[in-house]
Every structure is written in C-alpha cells, then in structure tokens.
Amino acid sequence: MGSGSRGVLLFKSSSSLVSLSPSLASTQLSRFGFSKSIATSKVYRMAATDASSSSSSSVSDGHCINPLDSSSASNGTAFSSSASSAIDFLSLCHRLKTTKRAGWVLRDVKDPESISDHMYRMGLMGLIMADVPGVNRDKCIKMAIVHDIAEAIVGDITPSDGIPKEEKSRREREALDHMCKLLGGDARAKEIGELWMEYEENSTPEAKIVKDFDKVEMILQALEYENGQRKDLDEFFESTAARLKPMVAEIAGKFQTDLGKAWAAEIASRRKKDN
C-alpha cells in the first residue's frame, strides 16, 4: 500500500465483518469496547480484499489480526529461505534486461531492444488478445514471459551463429534446468520449466499462439525500426512470410493461428502504406 493510500480496518460485529476507514475507526470501535489506541494503530489497518474469506482468518476472539504478519517462526523461516532463492534467480534474470537482441545488433540498429523488452511486449499481447475457445489466456501471458528465459545464460543465439538447432536446444535446456534449481526446484520452478518445455515443443494451443506472438512482435519491432531509423529490414518479414503478395497465402505459411495471421497481416499492411 502506498504512503498516500487509505487503510481499512476490519473487525467483526455480532453478525458480520465490518470494514472502516481510518477516519471512522476510533469513533466506531469505541462503541464495541475497543480502546482508542487499538482503533487508531496502523498495525491493525489492512486492505479489505475479500471480506467473506477474511472473516475467519483476520479476526479471533474479538481482536484484529494482520494476515500479512510474518512474525511467526514458521512463516519467517520459510520466507527467509525462499527469499534467498528468489533474489538469486531474479539477479540472474537481470541479464535479460541488459542483453540486446542479436538480430538487431547485427543490423546496426541504434539502441536495440533487450531480450526482456521482447518478452514484455509478448506478455502484453497475451493480456490484450481476444478470447479464443480452448485457450487459457493467463497461460499465454506466463508462457510469453518465460519463453526466452534461458537466454539469461546462453544469450540470444541466432542462425548466423552457425549453431545447429539441436545444440541450441540442448544449451537452453541445460540453462533452464540450472535456473529452476537456483529457484529452489519448488512448484514455481516446476511451472516455469513446464511452460518453457511446452513452448519449445509447440505442443498446445497456447504454445502455438505464443509462437505466433514471437514472430508478430519481431516484425512489429522491425517495422518500428524501419520507420524510426530508415533501415531496410525486409529479411525479417521474409523470414516470417509476412508480406502482401498475395497476403493470405504468404502469411499462412509461417503463422499457425488465426490470431497470429490477423495481427501479422495488419503489420504487413501498415508497412506497405508507410513504405
């Protein structure tokens, strides 16, 4: 909660859970026998996100309890242990913010995007996509966030590096295993590993959509660099067949989903107008 946010005090009356703003807390709680110091203490202020589910956990024997209180020995130990793994993992992921996408570097693009820039906009694609029957949108967002995560260790390997596809995959899997172990190998690490593998194997509807997002984001970025830096990046459009000659036949060659084809066609049409 920000410094300017207004807290909410929860307490239980005889029949229901009641939420009060700080300005009303002292006056109203005195009616129920609470002291002024308790009524105004910030320790007892909390956000009321789900009153029905909070009533049993937030209130006990007429006293207010902070559900975010980590003073218990068990919680404190668990958070301390997981915090170490989390910060180690996040520190490693910092490389995703500082490693530039190799394709743009090789084409002398000024101030090229980082790997995390690319993944972030793909995550936004999942966030704004229309509902597709049989597709879990939240899963698409998560998959977009982790699909290139192994590049924090191996870097952005491109075809120009001359590394066989099988070797590239082996290196990335090894890197991912290391990152999941660094995270502690718990449920979150397992989820990241499964999402990454699902994407790599292109084995689900969500993977196919995110594979299309990967190409769509690339050609959109190429269009933006063309417009902003007056560069000819036609090879990136050629690599995804996102051209208008004829539009439907060309785009269908690389994109697997109707959503991907529609977005790619829109980008290609804008490129034709701008050029």
TrEMBL record:
One of its GO terms (cellular component) is cytoplasm. SMART domains: HDc (SM00471). InterPro entries: HD/PDEase_dom (IPR003607), HD_domain (IPR006674), YfbR/HDDC2 (IPR039356). SUPFAM superfamilies: HD-domain/PDEase-like. It is an enzyme of class 3 (hydrolase). Keywords: Hydrolase, Metal-binding. Its EC number is 3.1.3.89. Its cofactor is Mn(2+); Co(2+). GO terms for molecular function: 5'-deoxynucleotidase activity; metal ion binding. Residues 115-219 form the HD domain. Belongs to the HDDC2 family. Catalyzes the dephosphorylation of the nucleoside 5'-monophosphates deoxyadenosine monophosphate (dAMP), deoxycytidine monophosphate (dCMP), deoxyguanosine monophosphate (dGMP) and deoxythymidine monophosphate (dTMP). This is 5'-deoxynucleotidase. It comes from Acer yangbiense.
